[in-house]
Amino acid sequence: MKTLALFDFDGTISDYDSATLFYKSLYNNRFVFLYRHIFLCLPQIVAYRCNLTNYLPLKRKRLQIHIGVLSDDDFNKHLLKFQQVHLPSILKKSAIERINWHCNQGHDIWVVSASYDFLLSEWCRQLNIGLIVNKTVKKQHSCIFEGEDCNFSNKVHQIIKRINLCHYDKIYAYGDSEGDKDMLKLAHESHLNYFE
What pLDDT digit, counting tens, does each position of 112-139 carry? Predict the structure, then answer.
């Protein structure tokens, strides 16, 4: 019997939003971070809160504000520290144990996340698990968000594009928010807020 396990990342495997943590790690001063993260993004925040737009314009703006100004060397330096120091600090022990359980059972494991490729790709590569995530292109003085946000129904669209679900006799799915519910409906066994 072939089995698939689908995991959301932020709030499911981690107990903190990975993108926000990375953005915070770029600054020595908390107030500089808040100024750039909130004040400079105020029009996008208001539009989102008033249901005038979805979350994507805000995500794009924050990518540009926080990362677009970094040189490639600075970006890579911060990213390496994030992957080695910050990311491990937010992983839930119970979620990692469950991933290891699926791995020991010989199940195919994929992380399906609205986070970014540059944040999670190395971690998934080390664990030898698949990754479906928001794609970005880093260029000098810009960081471009490609495609639609990998969230809500688009999570399902991205899964179907990458994985042939007909090959699996059983599907597990793990999530923690409204953005995961469409993905959870794909599973024979779904878990919302499963990990402490």
Answer: 999 999 999 999 999 999 999 999 998 8
Residue type, 159: I
105 neighbors 124 (Cβ within 8 angstroms): no
CATH code at 179?
3.40.50.1000
Query: Which residues make Cβ contacts (< 8 Å) with residue 157, sequence separation at least 6?
Result: none
- Looking at the structure of the chain, the number of domains it has is 1
Of 179, 176, 160, nearest in space to 168 by CA: 160
Say how far apart CA 115 and CA 64 lie, in whole Å.
Answer: 15
pLDDT at 69: 86
Residue 148's nearest CA partner among 45, 62, 61, 55 is 55
Positions of the chain with pLDDT lower than 50, given as ranges: none
Contact between 155 and 179 (Cβ < 8 Å) = yes
In terms of DSSP bridges, do strands 189-192 and 170-175 run parallel, antiparallel, or are they unpaired?
parallel
Give SS3 for 134.
strand
